[in-house]
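Title: Comparing notes on inverse folding

I've been comparing how different people in this forum approach sequence design from structure. To keep things fair, I'm posting one structure and asking everyone to reply with a full sequence. Here's the target:
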C-alpha cells in the first residue's frame, strides 16, 4: 500500500512531464490527487437503441460495425474516416476527423459501446466523433457516470481520471474525521465510500451523496476550527485598561461623532476594561467614519501605556491613515510612525528600532508590520483595516507580537449576514449604520459608448467647477483580443487627444509603492484634474474634492467593487456622480448594473453580489481570508453549513481538545485548512 503523502510520480504513466502539469493544479501527492474533485459529471449510464437516439442529446448505445472504416485524405491536415454501424432498430453513419489511429480499432462485424450525439442537419442519422469501447472492457468513457475534472494545458480528463483511479487503488483515502453519531444523525456517507464515490460514482445520486459528505466535512472542519479559536481566546487574560477617559481625544475632533460612532466607541471602551482580549469587528459602509473608532481605540491604548499597530491592505491607504491620524493625534502627544515595504532599508531599520524601543506609540503600516523583523516593545492593540483582505492567519501573526493584545478589525465591505456569520464567527460586531451628516447620495448612471462625448463634456464641466474626476479602467495594459479599457493607454488618450489642456494623472497596481503614493498624494493636493486608475483606489482613499467617478467597462467589476469605487466620491459637500460605461448588451448584465444604479444600500448590493458571483469573487480571489473550500460553496450550501456548525459545536464541547486519534486528526485538518487559506495581500 502507498501513503497519501507519496508523490504522484509513483503512479504508472506519471513521469516528469505529467507531474509538471499536475503541479499546475497544485497536485503533488496522492492526497492532493484524491482531493482533486470533479467539477461536474456526465451521466453516461443510459443505454439506448439507435432508434431512440435524440438529436444533440449524447447517449450510450450498443451497435455493430457494418463495414470496414474508410479513411479519405481530404487535404493536408484533414483525414475523414467514415463507417456505418447498426443495431436491430436502425443504422447510423459515423464520421471521425483525424482519428485514423482510433478508428483503426473498429473491426467489421464486431459490436461496441458508443457514446455520442446524433446531429440533425443531415437526411438520415449521422454522428460525429463518438467515443467507443469494447463490450467486455472496463467502462472508462461509456456506461458510467463520468467525472469532469478541472484541467490545465496538456492534461486531459482521461489522464486525470486514470491517475485518480490508480491512486484510489493503491492507498486508503483520508481518514474519517466525522464521528459516527454525526454521520448517522445527518445521513452522511463514510469517508472511505465518499472519497471513492466522488470520483467513481455508481449513479448521479451517489455522486450527490459523496459531494454532500465532502461539503459537510469541510464545513465541519472549518466550524470546529473557529470554535477552537473562540475557546482558546475565552481562556486568555490581558490586563484591563483603566484609563478610559476620552475627553482629550474628543476635544481635538473637528466634528461631532455620529451616534453610531459613539456607540461603537462605547463598546470598545467596555471591551478593553474586561480583562480579556477584545475581538471586535467594526462594520460600516464606505464613508461611515470607521477610522475615528480606530483612532479612539489607539488613543485608549496610549493612555494605558501600550503600543497600537494599525494594518492597512495597501500602501496608499496606510499613507492616508498616517497623514490623517498624525493631524489628529500628534498634537495630543501621540508618537506615530509609518512602516511600509517601500521605505528605504535604512529607514525601515530605524523605524523598527524605534518600535522595539517603545519610542513610538502608534505604528501604521502594511503587511510589513507582520514581518518577523518587526518587534514591539509592548503591543496592546492591533487594528486591521479592510479586514476581509487579510487572512485569519495574518491577523493572528500580528497579534502574536504582543501578549494577547486587543483586536479591532474594520470592514467597509458590507458583508452579507450569512457570510459574516462564517467569517466573523469568532468576532463581536459593531455596526456603523449611520453616515456623517451632510453626505449626499451619489447619482449613478449606466451608459453605452454612444455617450462618450457627453461623458467627456461632463468631466470638463466638473473640472471647470473646480472639482476632480476619477476614471477607473479594468486593466492596466491592453491585452490583445480583449477590448477592455486599459488604464495606461486610456490615460494617454485622454491627456493627448481629449483633454490636452487639463492635467491627467495615472495610477495602477503595477506601479512601485512610492510612485503610487506620489500619484495619489499629488491628486489629493489637486495637482491633477483627472486620475485614471485601476482598482488600487478601491479601498479607503479619501479625496473630498473629487465629484465624479467614471467606471469603464463596469460589467467587468463585481457589484461590491463598484460600490467601493463609487464610495470614493460624494465625500465632500458638493453633489457627486458616478457613470458606468459598458459595451455589453446582455440583458442580465445590464439589469444587474441598472439595479446598482438604483440603490446605495451596501448590504443589499453585497447580498446580490454573493448570489451572483459566490464569495470567492466577492472578495477577490484568494484575498478573502476565507478558507479555500474545495467542494463547498458558501452561497449555495448554507443548510449543510448550519448542520455542520451544530454538529461541530457539540463535538468540540465533548472532545475538541481530547487526546484521542480522531480529535488529533481533526485538529490536523483544521490546521491544514487555515494554512491553505492564508489570505494574500495586494
Ligand atoms: P470609512 O473608513 O468608514 O470609509 P472614514 O473613516 O475614512 O470612513 O471617514 C470618511 C470621511 O468622513 C473622512 O473624511 C472623515 O474625516 C469624515 N468623518 C468621519 N466621521 C465624521 C463625522 N462624525 N462627521 C463628519 N465627518 C466625519
Ligand atoms: Mg476606511
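Reply #1:
Here's my take.
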Amino acid at each position: 500500500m502507498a501513503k497519501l503523502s507519496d508523490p504522484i510520480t509513483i503512479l504508472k504513466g506519471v513521469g516528469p512531464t505529467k507531474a509538471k502539469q499536475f503541479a499546475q493544479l497544485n497536485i503533488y501527492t496522492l492526497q492532493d490527487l484524491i482531493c482533486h474533485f470533479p467539477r461536474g459529471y456526465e451521466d453516461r449510464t443510459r443505454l439506448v437503441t439507435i432508434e431512440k437516439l435524440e438529436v444533440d442529446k449524447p447517449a450510450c448505445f450498443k451497435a455493430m460495425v457494418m463495414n470496414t472504416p474508410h479513411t479519405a485524405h481530404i487535404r493536408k491536415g484533414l483525414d475523414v474516416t467514415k463507417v456505418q454501424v447498426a443495431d436491430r432498430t436502425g443504422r447510423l453513419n459515423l464520421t471521425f476527423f483525424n482519428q485514423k489511429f482510433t478508428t483503426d480499432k473498429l473491426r467489421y462485424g464486431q459490436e461496441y459501446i458508443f457514446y455520442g450525439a446524433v446531429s440533425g442537419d443531415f437526411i438520415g442519422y449521422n454522428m460525429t466523433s463518438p467515443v467507443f469501447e469494447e463490450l467486455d472492457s472496463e467502462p472508462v468513457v461509456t456506461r458510467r457516470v463520468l467525472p469532469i475534472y478541472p484541467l490545465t494545458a496538456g492534461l486531459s480528463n482521461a489522464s486525470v481520471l486514470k491517475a485518480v483511479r490508480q491512486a484510489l487503488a493503491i492507498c486508503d483515502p483520508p481518514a474519517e474525521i466525522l464521528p459516527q453519531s454525526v454521520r448517522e444523525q445527518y445521513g452522511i456517507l463514510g469517508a472511505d465510500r465518499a472519497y471513492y464515490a466522488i470520483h467513481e460514482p455508481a449513479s448521479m445520486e451517489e455522486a450527490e451523496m459523496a459531494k454532500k459528505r465532502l461539503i459537510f466535512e469541510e464545513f465541519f472542519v472549518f466550524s470546529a476550527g473557529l470554535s477552537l479559536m473562540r475557546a482558546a481566546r475565552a481562556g486568555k487574560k490581558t490586563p484591563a485598561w483603566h484609563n478610559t477617559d476620552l475627553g482629550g481625544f474628543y476635544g481635538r475632533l473637528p466634528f461631532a461623532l455620529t451616534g453610531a460612532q459613539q456607540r461603537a466607541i462605547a463598546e470598545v471602551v467596555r471591551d478593553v476594561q474586561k480583562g480579556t482580549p477584545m475581538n471586535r469587528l467594526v462594520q460600516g459602509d464606505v464613508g461611515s467614519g470607521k477610522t475615528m473608532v480606530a483612532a479612539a481605540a489607539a488613543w485608549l491604548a496610549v493612555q494605558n501605556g501600550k503600543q497600537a499597530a494599525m494594518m492597512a491592505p495597501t500602501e496608499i491607504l496606510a499613507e492616508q491613515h498616517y497623514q490623517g491620524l498624525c493631524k489628529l493625534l500628534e498634537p495630543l502627544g501621540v508618537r506615530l510612525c509609518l512602516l511600509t515595504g517601500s521605505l528605504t532599508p535604512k529607514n525601515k531599520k530605524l523605524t523598527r528600532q524605534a518600535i522595539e524601543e517603545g519610542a513610538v506609540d502608534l505604528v501604521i503600516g502594511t503587511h510589513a508590520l507582520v514581518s518577523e523583523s518587526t518587534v514591539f516593545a509592548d503591543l496592546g492593540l492591533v487594528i486591521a483595516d479592510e479586514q476581509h483582505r487579510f487572512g485569519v492567519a495574518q491577523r493572528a501573526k500580528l497579534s502574536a507580537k504582543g501578549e494577547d493584545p486587543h483586536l479591532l478589525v474594520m470592514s467597509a465591505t458590507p458583508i452579507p449576514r450569512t457570510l459574516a456569520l462564517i467569517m466573523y464567527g469568532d468576532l463581536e460586531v459593531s455596526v456603523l449604520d449611520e453616515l456623517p451628516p451632510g453626505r449626499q447620495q451619489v447619482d449613478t448612471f449606466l451608459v453605452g459608448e454612444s455617450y462618450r462625448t457627453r461623458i467627456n463634456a461632463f468631466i470638463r464641466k466638473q473640472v471647470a467647477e473646480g472639482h476632480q474626476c476619477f476614471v477607473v479602467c479594468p486593466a492596466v495594459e491592453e491585452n490583445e483580443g480583449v477590448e477592455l479599457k486599459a488604464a495606461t493607454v486610456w490615460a494617454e488618450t485622454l491627456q493627448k487627444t481629449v483633454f490636452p489642456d487639463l492635467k491627467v494623472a495615472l495610477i495602477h497596481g503595477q506601479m512601485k509603492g512610492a510612485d503610487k503614493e506620489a500619484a495619489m498624494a499629488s491628486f489629493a493636493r489637486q495637482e491633477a484634474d483627472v486620475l485614471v486608475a485601476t482598482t488600487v483606489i478601491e479601498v479607503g482613499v479619501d479625496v473630498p474634492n473629487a465629484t465624479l467617478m467614471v467606471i469603464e467597462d463596469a460589467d467587468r467589476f463585481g457589484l461590491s467593487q463598484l460600490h467601493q469605487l463609487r464610495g470614493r466620491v460624494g465625500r465632500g459637500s458638493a453633489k457627486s456622480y458616478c457613470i458606468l460605461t459598458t459595451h455589453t448588451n446582455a440583458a442580465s448584465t445590464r439589469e444587474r448594473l441598472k439595479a446598482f444604479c438604483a440603490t446605495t444600500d451596501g448590504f443589499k448590493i453585497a447580498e446580490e453580489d454573493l448570489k451572483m458571483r459566490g464569495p470567492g469573487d466577492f472578495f477577490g480571489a484568494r484575498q478573502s481570508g476565507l478558507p479555500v473550500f474545495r467542494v463547498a460553496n458558501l452561497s449555495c450550501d448554507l443548510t449543510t453549513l448550519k448542520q455542520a456548525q451544530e454538529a461541530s459545536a457539540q463535538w468540540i464541547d465533548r472532545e475538541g481538545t481530547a487526546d484521542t486519534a480522531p480529535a488529533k486528526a481533526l485538529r490536523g485538518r483544521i490546521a491544514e485548512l487555515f494554512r491553505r487559506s492564508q489570505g494574500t495581500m495586494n
